[in-house]
Design goal:
alpha+beta, 16 strands, globular
């Protein structure tokens, strides 16, 4: 089990991110890969039922964003509520955490589309307490296969939520249009890129002949709700209480 250093904690506070290389065990990687295959097959079946090749920001054979399905794939919850995720939450959020959202982000071989610079918070549409995103590399990540780039706070001087613009063609939202390149996550499978929901990040197209898969879990320090609503937005599943895991699978 990796130990998150004080240097990484400081980097998260000051720059909005840090990277844990080779943090995920081989058994957990197997779970992530098998769950991804299972959920892509299910999405294809739903596309067939609807008579479409496009659901939200997923595009058949090009890019898949499969959200809030952790409880519909074998053993995936074991990773979502693992001690690794608990350690990350303690280091970034504190002793209270809720699973806010989960999704697979998959770029198909030689077909994967790029994803614009955005803050995850930019997709919520209302003021909220920032949360943390854990972007887990299910495959080895390179520039060629469209790995994630994270923008340190100091590179653009933005630490707060900014207005995003939606691209009607792809469904993406974008909030930064400058030239700063960010930091590419060139990491082996099993690494976790940890960043604030206020951190800008993007990814490029997959130009290789292999699928590029990442699994994203997001955790919030409190239940997030839209204004005037009582139900949690997205998941809101209790995970940590007083620093201890409530759920383990």
């Amino acid at each position: 089990m990796p130990v998150i250093t004080e240097e990484q904690r400081t980097q998260f506070r000051e720059e909005g991110y840090f990277i844990l290389e080779r943090a995920v065990s081989e058994e957990q990687l197997k779970i992530l890969r098998e769950a991804c295959d299972h959920l892509i097959e299910a999405m294809h079946a739903e596309m067939d039922r609807l008579g479409t090749d496009h659901i939200h920001i997923s595009h058949r054979g090009k890019r898949y964003h499969i959200a809030k399905q952790y409880d519909r794939a074998p053993r995936l919850g074991e990773f979502v509520f693992s001690e690794l995720m608990a350690e990350i939450c303690r280091a970034t959020l504190g002793d209270t955490a809720f699973l806010f959202y989960d999704q697979y982000v998959v770029k198909a071989a030689e077909q994967g589309m790029a994803f614009s610079w955005h803050q995850d918070s930019g997709y919520l549409g209302f003021p909220h307490t920032p949360y943390v995103t854990c972007w887990t590399a299910v495959d080895d990540m390179t520039l060629a296969n469209g790995t994630a780039h994270v923008m340190p706070f100091s590179h653009i001087g933005i630490r707060t939520l900014v207005e995003h613009v939606r691209d009607d063609k792809t469904g993406d939202k974008a909030g930064y249009f400058g030239e700063a390149p960010g930091v590419p996550a060139i990491v082996p499978a099993g690494s976790v890129v940890v960043f604030s929901s206020l951190s800008f990040h993007r990814s490029g197209p997959n130009t290789t002949d292999q699928m590029r898969r990442a699994y994203v879990t997001q955790y919030s320090p409190e239940i997030l709700r839209r204004p005037s609503e009582t139900e949690p937005m997205h998941l809101g599943v209790p995970f940590l209480e007083n620093g201890r895991r409530i759920l383990t699978q």
